[in-house]
Amino acid sequence: MAAHRKPRQRSLSGNTARTAATIALAGAATATGFDGTSHAEPQLTPTQVKAKVDKLYQEAEVATEKYDGAKEKADAAEKQLNTLRDEAARKTEKLNSARDSLGYVAAAQYRSGGMDPAVQLMLSSNPERYLDGAEFADRVGHRQTAAVALVRQQLREIEQLRGAAHIELTSLKSRQAELGRQKKTINGKLDQARRLLSGLTPQQRVQVGEAGGTGRASRSTTAARGALAAPGSSAAASDAPNSRAAAAVSYAYQKLGSPYVWGATGPNAFDCSGLIQAAYSSAGVSLPRTTYAQINAGQRVSRSELRPGDLVFFYSGISHVGIYVGDGQMIHAPNPTAPVRLAPIDQMPFAGATRVV
């Protein structure tokens, strides 16, 4: 009978091993670019970096406006939740008082033994006084019935309040989750922008900033704007359509040089819609928190009709806003690399304008 043996595996040695190693290295070279063809991402020019950074900041601002809107709704839900809880606590306290009153009546009935009224009348030494007492007891019975009805009503109201509070709590948790998602998106976009800018030389970063309005203002520039703020403010305010717009423009001039911080509404830092809200708040006007709502907070005006104090909006998604100050200029909070500053309104895609009335 022939023997069935498992064929022995030949080990790689000598020329065979060297051949395998050569093939492996060749494959690695091809995958990593060692074959002479570079697969590294080409170096971006400052202009390309600027374009990418501007797009990232614009995307971050879209997320910021969503964050601001979610926060506004979360704050409202939390306030409503606290109101419902306070009201439920007050009604529970009243309910406990009503229960105590019912307890006293029940205890009094127990002490009287619940004796049949006819028997009590027969045993009474003074029937006339008993009848007077029976009439009083009947009135007490009516009051007791009313007290029971009140307790039942209070129980229903408390349950309704608890149900409403549960709905608000669910809404609050949803808003808080949305805040977390938008915050993550914002930070991701800003981190990408910082990494791109870090690849530029200091001189290139200055050039990008001056060309695109995304650079941080120098101390001399900020100081010069501060010196011009008062005259510029007076001229713009005098041409404003009403006193509220004039006051808002004056406030915006006072905030030139303030840092951009997403989600901030002042008094020392702002995002774009936060600056607008704070400016008009100083004039006694309450505006919505987000650009999406602010554009509908007044009377629409065309670009040719703009006057100081009008709100000017940019991008198709209405994700940026500034306050017009005349001569084709606005004051706005651009992005994290630039403070509140003057800028031409044709710097970004114009989307519309609103006059606060």
Explain what the structure shows.
- By secondary structure, the protein is α+β, with helices and mostly antiparallel strands.
- The chain folds into two domains: 153 residues, Helix Hairpins (Orthogonal Bundle), CATH 1.10.287; 140 residues, endopeptidase fold (from Nostoc punctiforme) (Alpha-Beta Complex), CATH 3.90.1720.10.
- It contains nine helices and six strands, in the order H-H-H-H-H-H-H-H-H-E-E-E-E-E-E.
- It has a six-stranded antiparallel β-sheet with strand order 1-6-2-3-4-5.
- The longest helix has 72 residues.
- The chain is elongated and about 105 Å long.
- The chain starts with 13 loop residues before the first helix and ends with a strand.
Beta-strand percent range:
5-15%
CATH class of the largest domain: Mainly Alpha
Q: Enter the CATH topology name of the largest domain.
A: Helix Hairpins
H-E string: HHHHHHHHHEEEEEE
Low-confidence stretches: 1-7, 9-41, 210-228
**Major β-sheet, in short?**
6 strands, antiparallel
- How many structural domains in the coordinates? 2
How do the strands line up in the largest sheet? 1-6-2-3-4-5
Name the helicity range.
55-70%
Mean pLDDT: 77
Count of helix runs: 9
Number of strands: 6
Structural class, from secondary structure content? alpha+beta
Shape: elongated
Distance between the termini: 108 Å
Rg computed from alpha carbons, rounded to a whole number of angstroms: 38 Å
Question: Which architecture name of the largest domain does CATH use?
Answer: Orthogonal Bundle
